[in-house]
Structure formats: C-alpha cells, structure tokens
Protein 1
Amino acid sequence: MKIKMHILFKAFVIAALFVITSCGQSGNQSGALSSNMAERSFVPPGEHDEFYAFISGGYSGQLSVYGLPSGRLFRVVPVFSVDAEKGYGFNEETKPMLNTSFGPVPWDDAHHPDLSQTNGKVDGRWCFINGNNTPRIARISLSSFETEEIIEIPNSAGNHSSSFVTENTEYVVAGTRFSVPVPQRDIPIDEYKGNFKGALTFLSVDQESGEMDLAFQVMMPGFNFDLAHPGRKKSHGWMFFSTYNTEEANSLLEVNASQNDKDYIAAINWKKAEELIASGQFETMETEYAHNIYSESTHMATTTMKKEVKILDPSKYPGLVYFLPTPKSPHGCDVDPSGEYIIGSGKLAAALTAHSFTKMLDAIENEKFDGEAYGIPVLNYDDVVAGVVQGAGLGPLHTEFDAKGNAYTTFFISSEVVKWKLGTWEVLDRQPTYYSVGHLMIPGGNSQEPFGKYLVAMNKITKDRYLPTGPELAHSAQLYDISGDKMELILDFPTIGEPHYAAGAPADLIKPNQTKFYKLEENMHPYATKTEKDARVEREGNEVHIYMTTIRSHFAPDNIEGIKVGDKVYFHITNLEQDYDVPHGVGMIGANTSELLIMPGQTETFIWEPRKEGVWPFYCTDFCSALHQEMQGYVRVSAKGADVPLKWSLDGE
Ligand code: RUQ
Ligand code: CUA
C-alpha cells in the first residue's frame, strides 16, 4: 500500500512537470546574452562592484564572498571546515574554533547566511551562518572577514532552519531539522512518535561585541523543522518556522512524511518567550555545548564548555506558539518586507500559500482554533490564509521580495523563477533557470528594505552550462536583472561547494569599515614578538618555543640549531609589517600541518615534531616582495641525546 502511494506520488510529479514545461515558460526566454546584457554585469578593470554577496559554501563548510553584478569571487571565509590556504583549523590559534561536545569537528555543511540588521535594515556588521551537520552557528565579522565565533546548538540535529536574524539582531535562530530524543538516550527508533523532540533555539546577540549567548530553547513536538524567517514591522516579535513530517515518520520519509495534506508553519511569539524567561518561568536542563570565540587582540580562539540550557515547553505556556496549517511539506518560509505575509512553499503542492499576519492575530484573539497538536493550538487554514498563487510552477522552494510589492519564488521541479504580485497573487513573469534552482537571493532580502535590482538564483544541477570538468561540475549561480517589469538573465557564475541561501548588501555599507591591518602595539598574543631584537628560542624540556618575526624579506631568526629529534617545536610567528596587504606565509618541510598565513600585526603558531636528523628548510609561502624567494631559513636537527647547544641567529648575529 505504501509503495503504491509512492508510485502514485511520482506519477503526480511527472504529470505536473509535463504540464508546466508544456504550457509554462511564456515570454522572453532567449538564453543568449545580447551585448547589451553583457554590459550590465561588466565591471570595468579597477572598478568596484555595487554589492557584496555572501554565498553559503554548502558542503565545503565555508562562506564565499562575491561581487555583484560581476560575479567575481573575492574571498572564501573559512568557517566550519579546516582551510589549508589560510591555516584555519591547522594553526594553534584557530583550532579551538572547531571544538564541539563531540570533540574537534573539522567539517560542516553550511547553509543559510544572514546579515545583522538595525531597525529592519541590513547594517553591515556581521554575517551569521549555520552548520547543518554538527549543529553550530557562526558569526563572521564584516570588518576583518574572519570567523569570530562559533556556538554549538545542543538538543539539536541537522541545524537547518537557521541562522535567521531578527530586525534589530536581537536573536539569531537555530531550528532543528531532525527531531531526536531530548535528552539523547538509547531508545528504539520506532518509539519516535510522541517521544522525540524538535528544539528551536534563540541565540541573543550582544550589540557591541556581537557575542552570542544561548537565550532559550522552545521544545517542540517531534516534527522536522525546515526553514524560518523573522516577522518584521507589524510582525516583529514573532518567528515563523516551516515544518514537515508532522506524521512523525521515522523511515522512508519520502512516502511516509508525505501523507498529511497539510503540515504547519509554527508561529513563535519570542517577545512572549522573553517575558517567560525574565519571570523565571522556564526549566533548566543539563546539557553540553561548546562556545568558541576568536579574539582579535590575542589573535587566539578559546573554547568554553557550557552546561545548561533554558527550556520552554509550549504546551505549558498558552500564547507562545501557534500552528498555521500549510500545504504540503512546506520548505521555504518567507516573510514579505511589510511583515504582513508569511509565504509557505509546499514542495509537493501546486500552489503557494500566503498567510496573513493580521488574520492570524485576529484568529488568535477570537480563539478560532481547529484543535491542537501536543497542546499547541492549531489555527484554521481558512481563517489565516491571505491568498494562494495558482499555477505558478511546480516544487516551490524559496521566495524573496523587491521593494515594489513583488515576490520571486524558485521552482525546483519546473526549473524557473516566477515573479508574482503580493496581494493580488497574480503571476507577472517567469524565467527559466539552468537547472533546478534551489535558493534565490535579492540583496537585503531578509529585511524591510530589499535592494530589488538583482536576483541571484542558485542552481542544484549544472549539466551543460560550463566547460565540463569530469564527473563533478561547479554549481551554477545565475544573475537576473529585476529592475524592469521582466526579469532578464545577465550572467552565469560558478560557486564554491553547493550554495544554499545567500545574503547581499550594498558595498558602501561594508567597504568603509574594513580592517586594513592589526596594530602591533595592540597585539596581546602571549607569544607575540614585537621587535626583531626580541626574537629568540627557548627550551622547556623537550618543548621548544621559537619567537620568530617576519618583515620584507626575512625571518628572524633564520638559522636555528640545537633542536633534537623528539622535540615539540612551536613556531610562534609575528608579522611585523604595519602596512595594508602584506601578509607573510610560512611552510616547514615535514610539518604535519598547513602553512600559516599571517596578516600584518598578527601572531600565529604551528607545531613541528622533527623525526629525522638533518638541516631542514622553511620558507615564506606568500610572494611578498621582489626578494620573496630569498625569504627562507634552516633548522638543524640533531639526534635525541646530542649535546648541540641551542642557538639562533640572523646574519650571524
Ligand atoms: S535549503 S535549497 Cu538549506 Cu532550500 Cu538549500
Ligand atoms: Cu614573505 Cu614572501
């Protein structure tokens, strides 16, 4: 019986796909770029792009930074995965960033970047992004473009409905995709239903430092929580999460979680949650999670293991959570710039559902409930729905908005972006994507003020779009000009990993705040060496600490003797340069780690454990000057019991 349902469902998808591709996609769909179109994405040499785009690296675990409209890649910011190019996760300073309650985890699946906001507008301070696999949220500084903080999310698994930011960056949310036993324990998997829980986590953000703190978790029934977006303007104070698998199936979800005609969007009143927390109405639960912070003054990360979390059980606190029935396994959950409409993209529905925030409040006030689920009131679909976009496409995933009352939705199955009107629900335009689009991004998308000039579509399938590179192809992002009535495809560009969501902001908001270098006098690293004359080597038993400096174009010291097989040698290297864009690198033969790439004024460390006697070279890995190739040194390694005295020098001194 179940298998039959499965086949029936597939037949439905195929039939619907046929309908879409045979009658849809009207209008201008020439894939060719006219020269006029090429000019619109062309940024002349030496000129800057108009927007920054922060694109998730998907299973690369990183965040990539592009310019729009050029599609030029500027930087890959290492976040959840080690990165040998930058030494991230390899040097002693950043290793703690990857600590979790499971030990160091050097990889993650990064999905949804979002930018800090003030008064509902993107403010250019920080970018947040979620690690999906081992639940974590990271904060990246938009001055240094470094990951400054990673906080693990306890009681969570598959941290997917994350990391969305409220209007004044009060909170960053992290919702669990997989429900799990909370607390984790050894129970049969088929006892899922009624026993597993879905934790929705609210992280507060310090407005000065940006530091996150786990404020509370709302412990929801064992559904899957997919995506989220905050209310804004009138709905500020609420957070909306889409759910699927309200069936609470624990196997063959592609069939068993597609049974219910409607799942829910969960509306969480976080202002109410704040009141409950402030008045002590919560439970404290023991747990364990890592909080990792990188300090720009010590140039070092530290880990604190936290032990407790505040829990709110929504069945105990009326008014905290409501369910809005939404067809059919909704994926995206998007709120329009006015805060009135909450769009649910039912992956398996042929129509898009827009709920009305005003109608929702009205239904709550008049207690028009259609039953409850685990003690949480379920509102009546007809009481809350504002409108339905009919015949838009198949497989809706995500919606973004411009500032003119239009919405743009991606359709995975019919491979297109569809523009439609908020309030009238009419389809205005559709353009194909190449191919099978997932997320889309309009700069300022998750805010009151989108900059509705460009739209980036991030596609799941590439096929023939680029020169082929063996079985694995770069993912394709596509840039559409949406300033006119019709969307126009103006550029294809490849991305790093598999991009999910992205965030964008005007360059003017970020460019003026850039850190150019770190001031040497402010360097508080315990192993910093601030002048060449302080460079030295110290032995403590079999540990050797090298206090080394770099400046164009030499290391000090560059000759070191008296190191022995079995020693643990710490290279603590301070880059003495006080100038923009002069990093030095260092690589040591046989070191079981990566290079270091040290910014001006910064100190970084790697450990080398020499195994063989000999004279071993190290060198600068970054082409820093005309005499970069001369920037090198030697370490003499003697036998374990040798009595070669420890000495170091630069030019014999
Ligand atoms: S989710 S499309 Cu994280 Cu839509 Cu990727
Ligand atoms: Cu320093 Cu090359």
Protein 2
Amino acid sequence: MSVIEKFRTMDYGPAPEDPKESLLWLDRHKRRFSHFIAGDWKAPAEGKFFDTIDPSTDEKIAEVAQGSATDVDAAVKAARAALKTWQALTPHARARFLYALARQIQKHSRRLAVLETIDNGKPIRESRDIDIPLVARHFYYHAGWAQLLETEFPAQQACGVVGQIIPWNFPLLMLAWKIAPALATGNTVVLKPAEYTPLTALAFAELCDEVGLPKGVVNIVTGDGSTGEALTKHPGVDKIAFTGSTEVGRAIRRATASSHKRLSLELGGKSPFIIFEDADLDGAVEGLVDGIWFNQGQVCCAGSRLLMQESIAEKLTKKLQARMSTLRVGAPLDKAVDIGAIVARVQLDRIDRLVKQGVAEGATCWQPEVVLPSRGLFYKPTLLSNVHPASIVAQQEIFGPVLAAMTFRTPKEAVELANNTVYGLAASVWSESVNVALHVAAQLKAGVVWVNSTNLFDAACGFGGYRESGFGREGGREGLHEYLEPSWFRKAPPLRAKSSKRADQAEVANPAIDRTVKLYIGGKQARPDSGYSLEIRGKNGKLLGESPLGNRKDIRNAVEAARKADSWARTTAHNRAQVLFYIAENLSQRSGEISARLAAAVGKRQAAQEVKLSVERLFTYAAWADKFDGAVHNPPFRNISIAMNEPLGAVGVLCPAKAPLLGFFSLVLPLIAAGNAVVAVPSETYPLVTGDLYQVFETSDLPGGVVNIVPGRPSELLKVLAEHDDLDALWCYGDAELCAGAKALSVGNLKQVWTNEGREIDFFHRQQAEGPWYIEHAYQVKNIWVPYGE
Ligand code: NAI
C-alpha cells in the first residue's frame, strides 16, 4: 500500500511498546511479591498468595500476598514506630524525600507505565502520557507543601498513622494522591492497593527503599476487601482515606463510626456532559471521547451521561457515531490503541448486565462495527440513546465505555437533569457563550466542573465530590486539611458523658407558665408538634421557664424552612457580613437582660463572659463573611481553574450543653457566614436561650429560615437530623457516644459529619473555638476549569 493510500484509509499498523524492562523487573522478583512492611519484603503470615492477571490476555502476570489481619497489624505497628522518626525530621528534610520520590518516578516512568498497562489493561498512551506524569507532578507539588508546612499551616499537626485504600482504575495515580499529601504533612502510611492492580504500588515500595525513605514511613499490604476491612478496623489507625465504590464507602463509614478515626471518601459518580446548541460540536465530540472512553470509562468522574440540547441532538449523535467508528479497541501496549481492556471479568459482566438492563428499560443501544481481540476482556464503545432519566443506566455508575444520552430544552432543564442523581463528583459544560457556561457551572452540584473541556487534573486543583460522591478533597491546599488537625485538639480532654435528661428536668404537658419559649422555624416562633414542654430549672433548683420538646415533625419543618432560605447563599457576602454585624449590635444592646437570664443557669460570671465573647465572635464571622474568597489555580495546561468556596447547603447543628449562648454562636456563625442555612438544637441544659436568640435575630434582618432552632433531646433529634436525606451536613458536638451516633446514623445518605470526636472544646478559648478550622468545615470547594489564553 502506498503512503497516499495509507493516508486515505488512515489505517495504522501495530506499534507495540516493548515491555522488556517491566518483564525483567517482574522476573527479578521471581513474579512473586510479599508485603512491604518496615522497609522490607515480608511474607504473608498465613502464607497465602493470589494471582494478578493481564486483562488483555487473561494470563497470569505474578502472584501477590493476600494480607491478613496479622499482616495489617504488623504494618500499622511499623507505621506507628516510624512516626517519631518521620516527625522528628524538619519539613525541609521531608520535602527532600518527596522530591527524591518525584525524581525517581520520572527516572523509571516508562517501566511504571508499562507495568500499569499490563496489570490494568489501560492503553499505554494513557499510562505513559497521563497517569505517570501526574504521579510525578503530585510528588513535586507536595514536596513544595512539605517545605512550606510550618509557615502555611502553623499550630497544626499530622493525624498520625493513615490507612489508605485505593481502587484499580488509576492504581499508581491514586497511590500518589493518597501518599504524597500524607507524607508532606508528617503522617506515616499503610496503603492497600486494589486486588486487580497491585503491581505499581509494589514497584513504588521499591522506589521508597531506593531513595532511603525511613523504614516504616510507607507500608504496602496487598490483598482483597477483607484486607481493607482489617485496616479500617485496626485501632492503631488514626485516619482512613478511601477511593472506590459508594457501597464500600458506606461500609467504611459504618466500620469507623465509633472509633473516631478521621475519614475521607472519594466515591463514585454519574457525571453529566452537557452540550448546548451553540457549542463547538466537533470539539465537544472530541471531549466526549476523552470524557467516556478514556480508561475504558472506568473513571469515577467519567462523563457518562450525555445531555444534549434537543435542537442539535440528531446532528451531534451522527457526528458522535462517526467518531466512535474510528476508535481503535485492542492490545493496550499498542501505542495506536484508544480503548484497552476492562480490568476484570466481574467488571466486564457488570457492564454487560447494566447495558442489557438499560435496553430492557427502553434505551436504544448503538455500537460501532469494531472487531474485538479474540482473547482478553474487551467491550465495544457503546452509545445508549433515548435513555429515561430514571433508568438504571442514567442513575447507576456503569464504570465502562458506555454513554447514556438524553436531551433537554432549556438551561434550567439541563441543570435539573444534571443534578438528578445522588452523586455530585464532576460535570462538563459545552457552550461558546461564557455566560451560559458559567451560569450553568455555578448551579451544578459537583466538586469539579470543566467548561469546554473534560477530565483535566492537576495536583494544585482539589478533587472530590458533593453528596454521595463522598467528602474531603484530594490535591490543592484543601487536600492537606484532610491530613492535619489543630495541635491542641488531640490533647483535649474527653467530654464527660451526661444523660440526655437532666435530673432537674421534668416532663409536663402544656399549658405552660409565664416564660415559655417556642421553636424558631422559618423566621417565626412555632409551637412544638408534640405539645410537650420541659421544665428548666436553674442551679439552685428554681424554675426558670419551659422549653418546647421538638420532635421529628418539627425537624422536618425546620429543614424545609432551611431549604427555602437558599437565597442566603446567593446574596452578596457583603450583605451577610452586614447582618452579622447587626446581630452583634443588637446582642450588645440587650446584653444586660440576656446575661441576667443566662446567669440563673450558668452563674453570673460565665453569663457575662458568654455574652461578651458572643459579640466578639459575631464580629469575627462578620469579618470572615466577605473573605471566603476562593483561588485561581494555574495548572500546567491552557486553562485556569477557579476554586470557588461554596456553602454546604442546609446543615444540622447539635450545640454544646455547656455555654448555651457562646457554644451556639461558635458553631452556627461560621456556617451562616459561609452562606449555609442551619437547623440547630440548642443546649439541652438551658434551651431557654432560644427565646433570647430569636428576639435578637428578629430585629437584625436575618432572613427567615437561615437559622432555625428546635430545642429537644439531642439523642432523639440527632437520629432525625442524621437520617434526613435533605440535610447536606451535620455538625455534632457531644460526648463520644453522640458523635459516633452521628456518623453511624447517616451511613445511608453519606452525609458530611463533623464532630468534636467526644473531646471537650473550650468555647471561651479563642484559639480553640473560632477561626480557620471551623471555616474550612463550613464550605466545600468547587473547581471550575475554564480554557484561557492562546
Ligand atoms: P471497591 O470499592 O470494592 O474496591 C475499592 C477498594 O476497596 C479495593 O482496594 C478493595 O479491595 C477495597 N475494599 C473492598 N471492600 C472493602 C471493605 N469492606 N473494607 C475496606 N476496603 C474494601 O470497588 P470494586 O468492587 O473493585 O468496583 C465495583 C464498582 O465500584 C465499580 O464498578 C465502580 O462502579 C465503582 N468504583 C468506583 C471507583 C471510583 O474511583 N469512584 C473506583 C473503583 C470502583
């Protein structure tokens, strides 16, 4: 065939990558790998190994150790022992190790890329040009943070020993996302790679040894879900970081609820890929190739739901089908291949099952006429059209090369469809109009939005989800918060357990005596649904008044009111600041009477102090309200990434029993300053504070529904708050049991929960009770990537 003819047909010959180096490496290890613990290869205690296969041939590559609870224990002990050495190093010394790892990864990049491709089945073009360069970039970026740790994160300390569990879709990249920030902040690590793809983690272990990383700082234990489970349950682990399926994320939340381990979860997604009629359609089609066929669609943020404006649906579908027909499916080591192998037989079967179910539910299935290799695990690029928004293929993560297409008419409808899942990981918006694109981006419930682009990642830009896509961010400054905590917090004493019903409280039926306080919902005083009140008595036993006993229905009404108050999030930050200043002014004016009433419950000195510090705290958060600025990142592409700090939404707050006024403000103010609406359960010792609070709010222009107050028994109301699907987050202050309950009760909806882990916070102490730690928990970061420059 002449060159001209070849050019016309655009046929490629095979262009195989030479795997020799990687195979030699495997042979050097006799194709059998033990765990990497305390800097040495340690045979599994139970002597069990399992095979890892090459999914493009279905053949065995090597054997790896099956980790048991004993192996996990040895690794955790090694990490604990190494903590002292690692933390005794200066940040600069740790920065040098991270830098050394980055360099070592670059030096061995091709071997790592080939190994990744053999073990995972992804095209070499991707592992070579995307995965491994990003791995190196992550270590460079975090070498920088390690160097700057003391100046940029003063008075913070590492969590300690971190257990990290990663999936198989980006094996080495996920390892880098986990290990680099953990080490940069002074933690030590036990990492469990996915059972299908353990090899690059083991190669990385060797690199750690080569750069002389102190023994035990990084430990790798291989195995399946049971090994991961042993890690999540190990009492010696201070924090778990997990990426994987939402189902396992739930199991981990359940397993860690009562152990007070910190937890970050990066879970699944069903990300929308929205194309408006004014988009550059050819560009959008190329974007789609990247969005859903990159890594065979086994990407948590894959653009798996195509939302097309109705007017262009036909034209776009034709262009898409034409492009799909040119995708090359085949041996992943071939440099000209676009789509490689599916990681494992169970995943292939799952994809097939879901596609068949989608078709049974009415979708039309289209696949190009590509010939799949005769062996190995392959699946054709697939387009499902006419998909009903409620169909399983529009709602569930397929995690394969399958695109589910739907249409919309207006931007409003596009946003509604886009947000119509339980997930909120990523989104892609295509329009030549910057107004349309950014208007839509702002309304999407997603941690990352790519405008006229897709699947862009950088270590400087935080990545992570909203809603059931998880919580916590990886990358960026915000990613470091996951591995740090205030130095004083670890040393805080446990909060004394107290019964939810005080001895001096007695239940009585209405009608009440003179000083009766009501609930405060939607800016109005409301009677409790139960019709019950509690007598509240002071220190000397004197009856101070009656407080309503809120129940499930009251909480439901309060959540509804908080939802309706969403204009608070959209109002200007200046307005929010003004309202907070105004509350301070009104509280200050009434300080005498409020303090006198509070004194009957907490004593004169504390009451005066609480009012004074509450006014100060109001000033603090009024000051912060217009300074929640995000950032503009400059990733190494022709893009900027706008990191917006967005409110969480509607947040439940269980306030401390002690310091009824100051404790309430300490938790509620950072939330409303950031634009959230709140449903608060006030101090159970002195819920009568509610009456003073709403009188101040009512005179301070705080819009109705921004703060709702439902007095009642914390342990009862906690359950309602935690299980409420329409509440985005929960801040729970209480003893160890209450905090564990907050996490365990919200396993179903994977709500973001922040607690004091049963420790006592001194709300009279500024360093402990206000500032960045609270603010960081009051918002979530959305990164909007926008093409920029030449
Ligand atoms: P998975 O969530 O079971 O596996 C992820 C990691 O968790 C692996 O290292 C696994 O060994 C570990 N693991 C499993 N059970 C565990 C437990 N009880 N405790 C602690 N660790 C445990 O994911 P799987 O089964 O491999 O894939 C199933 C589906 O999950 C996929 O089809 C896809 O929809 C989704 N998924 C999402 C990922 C993401 O990045 N969001 C990554 C991998 C899978």
